[in-house]
Automatic annotation (TrEMBL):
It comes from the Eukaryota. Residues 432-798 form the RNB domain. This is RNB domain-containing protein. GO terms for molecular function: 3'-5'-RNA exonuclease activity; RNA binding. GO terms for cellular component: P-body. SUPFAM superfamilies: Nucleic acid-binding proteins (SSF50249). GO terms for biological process: miRNA catabolic process; mRNA catabolic process.
Amino acid sequence: MTFWQLTNFVSAKARNPSFPTPEAAKEALDVELCIRNHKETNIHVSHVNLQNIAVMPVNLGKPQGEEGMIYHTEIVRNKRYDGSDTSSFSGESSSDDDYEAVRNPEDSILLDSSGADETNIDSDDAISLDKYETDVYEHADDKTDFYEQSKCLHKDEIPINFHEEELWVKNGLQLKPGFVNQFKPKKHFDHVYEDCENETELLEKLNSNPAKYVRCIIHHDGCHNAICNPVDKLSEVPTIHISGRSKIGRTFNEDEVLVEVLSRNKTSEEVNGQVLGVFRRNRYQGIKHPVFICTVDENGSHLLRPMCKTVPKIKISTSYLRSDYNRPIFTVYDYNERLGVLTKSTDVKVSSKEHLCVFLVVFITWSSTFTYPLGRIVKILPWGNTVARGLTILNMQHEVHSIYSKETIDQVNDLQLSEGLDEPSTEKQQNRMDCTLLDAFTIDPPGAEDLDDALSLECREDELHVGVHISDVTEYVMKDDAYDNDAKQRLLTFYPKIDRPRHMLPEPISTRKCSLLEGKRRLTLSVFYCFDKHGKRNQINTQDIVRPTVIKSRKQFSYSQAQSIIKKKESEHEITKIEKDLKIMFKIACVLRKQRLGNAMHASQAVFNDRGAEDNEHEAHILVEEFMILTNITVGKMLYKQFPECVPVRYQPPPSDENMHEFLRKNGVFIDVVANLQDRCIGGNIRGLHTLLAMDNQSVTGKHVTVPKNMWQAIKDHRIPKQMLMCDYMLPIQHVTLQDWNFIQERAGYICCNGHKSDADDCKHYHLDAFPYVHFTSPIRRFIDIVIHRLVHAFLNDEPCPYTSTEIKSICNQLCSKEKQAKEYSKNCQLLKRALELQTQPQMLQCYVEDVSTSGIIFCTPSLKNVTKTDRTLTFNRLEMGHKPELMQAETETETCVRATWRKRLYDCKGTAFKYPKEALKKACLPLNPNKNVILIPLATWAHMIKSALNGHNADFEKKLLFAAAQHSSLISGFDDVSTESVDLKDLKPCTKFSFDFKRGQVINIQMLAGPLRGIMVPKPMCLKLTDTICFCLLHTEDPVFYLSNYSSVAISKSFRNVTQYVHEWLPLILMESAASTVGCTNDNFCINNVNINFTSGAIGKFALSTKHCDERNIELSGIQRDESIKGDEEAYTRDSADVIKSYDWICIKALYPLDSSTSHNGDYWIAHGTITGVQKKSLESDKIIVSFKLTARSGTVPGELSSGNSKYSIEVLKKGNVDG
């Protein structure tokens, strides 16, 4: 049965009180089966055998039972415990929950009368999510700092539930054993996991065969894969790989486990194994019932998926959930801390499509017979669609601390009473070098309050004395005091960058007492250097001097202020002494950077956009960065000589041989043009322009660098400096190559030195090429820096090391994990900010193809550095291709590319056609120009251009610039645009076949917006623009039901009292299936460009088409009244049009915002979806067809910039497909 047949069936029934035939009803039920299967499995069911329907007939012609009732077969969908599923039909009532209770041991739980669970939930009794949010959520946005909040909390001046969610996630819940025992299976089932819980047995196995049984730390890579690193670094067993949920066992990330070695691959040297048991939990140590932040699993609302990918799904038993199909009902439980139990609180309806909420789920138990752990929901929070809500989720997800302990509050109070929170006491300033007369200054982000480093310059004859002054936090934070214990828990300050920081130390210490504020005396540890006037470093008494000091900062600069001073010309502006000091120190920093990086120091971080080049404060960051790196190396060398076995160094291992080999194979000679990799040893060779220039022509023939046209033109016009050619992030090939390089880098961490000769290799920082390298310069925000400061004081006072090597190792291990957490938190916060910007204003971005395969592309762009690879993936099935993508060899490149081919009906409202060369008309497929937006420059020419720019040979650079432009014109191939229109109507084809080649480094234009993903807002692609007239909407191809129709929230009744009820419940499901089948029907869909639309209101509009134009191009709109079927006068035509002349097609409307400097939408598209509501002739004599439509609620209304009447629209008509395929 087609959509039109079923629609006519429903419409006829609405007009005719008689019931339809049993055959028609049976076909309708066939559609229902397709729809339900599609909904539950997310797979389009093209055909279902009607013989699978229950034998009991559905006779709508002869009502059964109560008069006027319509009965239909009930579908019972079952999922087996082994993961498969079955579908059965029965005339009897048999619920999913009854079936699941038999199949799943998780549901076979004997409950006592404690009232912990309720099984009978009526959907009418459940409240909506919006009502639940209004009732229980949205804390007041308190602007007081966390110290003050902690202070009030410990005084009971604010309710404990103000931060209860964060406390739950941090500490878990305390549940009584008697309550937990209720959840044991009442029947015996086979074990899913064969792991052992007896530690004695595990130790016996470990000691019996150390080669087979290995003690490891497990690191989960998702839910079904893990790697295990032996605890014993001298173990002969390398990293062990585990694949499969059952082999991973009931483990959490970073657990200490016993692993059995199952196999060894002699070729790849890969070792596979399985977990036998857990010795110790590291992540949730001492917490029996942790609380996880979860979202609904896509495969079933009885499973909740933790946002942490290393935690398995959590089962919410189906016996506690009743679903009215697309609005499952979740039971929320109250936690009674005094009794240690959970009691039912509220039933909440949640949209199964959008899942726009997150759940706090407490882990109850995990029996060896349970595939997944069991849990209960203790709170539902709204999803992160605002800064406040997003931060709430991220703070909990990354376990960001907020409340300080009562002991810390008391210690701050004691300090305030003893010497105040401003300048240090006279006693504390004794035995310190007085450096308050130095013109010290700080450079930090705007608004920063935790200032822990300052710089100073003193000119003495021909010598320049530089001081690096670091806040001496250890003068106030003593080992094992309250501050120290709190800091050991936090380890780092978390910077969201869209909200106030979560400080490691309480604000009175971190932003006042220890912060190097302007005009305030502060205690510091200072490192002094001496340079000559050329920036060459001299020694002071054969070694650098580290001393306890007192300073007074003269000026607090922001990075932008420091950047302006560096760029300021002395001849044009009056320079103050401190500004002159800053400029001199920048020159010294450049010398240090040249010595450290070679030609890579010229790599630019500037950003190019329509406003020109923005330097991004790069030089100001260089000034601070170079002196901090120098200081960390200096202190590291000093401490390693004194405490070789107890120094926590910052280290980074080199990339693996396998990753390095793949990087070299994949990128080849393009490595030599990456500015950030100049003069770097890669794969045993020093790479750079000199390597490329020394190659013969054959090695670089056919290889090109691409430069965006707008950037190239700006350089030619001298609107931006030629140094922009050294900005890797703005150049496609360089960007993706550098992205690959960063991807293969191992994560940096902290490690305790052993005092052996091997430390120089084992503890070296690969990227900085330094050993020993420590973190000394940020003690206010990093706990490891406090540890280093204590070692420095021990060195200066000739005291023993204040830490044992065991303590240092423990701190290093904890900090490695916490640092990863902090970086992910900061990255996700910035991503949230970017997503919220895109939510209100989608933006067309110039993107680069990072990788390509026959399934799709992965793209990257400088403005979306923190977006995950998943959200930067564009699959080809969203582009509605009529052909399978072809993997082929590029004509002029050694790398491969993928050719995508389409058949599209692309028309112009006025019939305007492109003038193709005669030979093009003979081609079966028209290739699009893949390099329309870039300039192609041969690799050798590029190398000479960059060399001239670096050496300051401007005339030579200009010559090579013109030469490169001339070479580009000879490399152009393909058409800039295509159309189905033809100058001669005799040559008009039914459709146009065209292709586009995607390859690595390709420049493509993608418009980004934002949408929900697992409870939080993230950027996602909105449309792909190939040419001026070809723009693929990625919204309705990703989720056609959501954007074209609506997900039904009405359950199908077992019987119907009247036709109105039948139509009300069935029609939304029919529309859902029709929308799903619309995507992919590329032969029926067509696009008309340059259409004038008259919006009669914000969401209602109409446009006119010529009947002659439509007939010549075979353009048909569903429901168009043909001339020959019009009988009678115009009055009859008008009278019948409401019932006969209707169209139910969907449309996708695109319009380019006007290129007006007054709008912020320059170059962006407005995209909306709607339903055609009517098609009729203006009059019987008229040649015009008037098409009326209404935008969907999700599309909103037409923007003011496009409502003037001068805008041109592109209308893609999406024909409704057959609901049964």
